[in-house]
Amino acid sequence: MERIQLTDDLSFSRFIHGSWRLADWQYSTKKTLDLIEHAMDRGITTFDHADIYGGYTCETLFGDALNEKPSLRYQMELVTKCGIVLPSEQRPKHYNTTKPHIIASVEQSLRNLRTDYIDLLLIHRPDPFMDPHETADAFVRLKETGKVRHFGVSNFKDHQWRMLESHMTFPLVTNQLELSAYHLENFEDGTLNLCQEKRIAPMAWSPLAGGSIFNGTDEKAIRLRQTLQEVGHEIGADRIDEVLYAWLIRHPAQIMPIIGSSKKERIDAAVKSLDLSLNHDQWFAILQSSMGHSVP
Ligand SMILES: NC(=O)c1ccc[n+]([C@@H]2O[C@H](COP(=O)([O-])OP(=O)(O)OC[C@H]3O[C@@H](n4cnc5c(N)ncnc54)[C@H](OP(=O)(O)O)[C@@H]3O)[C@@H](O)[C@H]2O)c1
Question: Which N-terminal residues, if any, form the signal peptide (predicted)?
């Protein structure tokens, strides 16, 4: 599989597998390991996590599977996130991007994932209470101690990216964004343009709109499904998820879609989309179908 070079010493597989829903699947450790190996056999070596996924349980489920075959760790890249604190009896949901919180969160992620380093740490969401100097200082500390190799953000708009990066001594390497043919906001508001300006490849979360595109009954979902079927027929796709992935891959920003599926055949469909090619008109047909009108 094609690889995307994020820095001189870090590359990701073009497709990434995500663990947000891992706890919902109720997989045994063996079945989780089997899915990880299935993805890796197809060249998907990058795995996306967050401290909070599954109510703080998904990293451990993945780490338990990895513990069955520790040698896999050195053939994969692990991404995790921090900064969101889920509600508890004591405190409401909030964000925390202070140095002590970031460092404690990473140390817990290392224990959960049964590893001694994270390849990429992301701040999960922009924090209106962020002290960027302190956040950047936490990154320096984690880099110096070898616990995290590189840093990025998720869901940051242009100004939030620039603010944090202006306090850093090394560059942010990616922005993980909601990007799909169904959700166009980041295509339209300059967020993706900043990635292109900075020459950084974005990671795309919910590339299939969280699955809602397959059964959504709203006008947009129905319209988009129809167009995806038509374009899919033209390009020889077997299913519309292949077309959704091909649409993202075709964009010049080197988007890295994160597959959220629990099923091997759906991982295979993502990989197959790399062989499909949309022409200019087909790309715009899907865009306009999602917009519900022609470009001006
Ligand atoms: N940074 C952030 O704020 C953020 C937010 C959300 C997610 N993420 C990351 O992005 C990853 C992917 O997000 P996602 O899970 O929403 O991705 P997605 O690929 O858009 O959605 C996956 C969901 O769609 C379902 N699905 C896939 N193909 C289908 C089909 N043909 N028919 C019906 N349902 C289908 C899957 O069910 P099956 O399991 O049955 O295939 C799964 O429940 C997450 O795991 C996480 O790592 C990040």
Answer: none
Strands 10-13 and 203-205: unpaired
95 is an active site residue:
no
Answer yes or no: pTM beyond 0.90: yes
C-beta of 214 in contact with ligand 1 (< 6 A): yes
- Give tens-digit pLDDT for 70-125: 999 999 999 999 999 999 998 999 999 999 999 999 999 999 999 999 999 999 99
CA 273 – CA 243 distance, rounded (Å): 7
Instruction: Give 18 Cα–ligand 1 centroid separation in angstroms.
Output: 8
Q: Write the CATH number for 164.
A: 3.20.20.100
Atom of ligand 1 nearest to the CA of 25: 39
Question: Where in the sequence is the domain holding 77, given as residue range(s)?
Answer: 3-216+240-278
- pLDDT per residue over 237-266, tens digit each? 999 999 999 999 999 999 999 999 999 999
Q: Per the domain annotation, does 167 fall within a domain?
A: yes
